[in-house]
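haha ok so turns out i had the wrong file open the whole time. this is the CORRECT one, sorry everyone. sequence first:
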Amino acid sequence: MRFVTLISMPNEAGNKAIKDGSLARVMQTTIERWKPEGAYFTTMNGERTAIMIVDLPTAAHMVEFAEPMFLQLGAKVDYHVAMNANDLKDGLAKIPR
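then structure:
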């Protein structure tokens, strides 16, 4: 299932992760492992934030995706189910008229 994920790090934890190299390491490992459709980096609510569009095979993979960020970066991870244009088209075709 496709998700838009928001990964936000409190500033203190983000500062530490930059200084010790874990931020770059965790992001690179995450990108290599999950091969996101897109990976973007910005700020939200004053915190460093990564936005990744990932396809997770099952809900159980949500744990595998998020735990490194929880444990190594002190991050918050939010998931939002997302459709692409084909998913929307297929869904709309199933609505009774």
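The two ends are 27 Å apart (CA to CA).
again sry for the mixup
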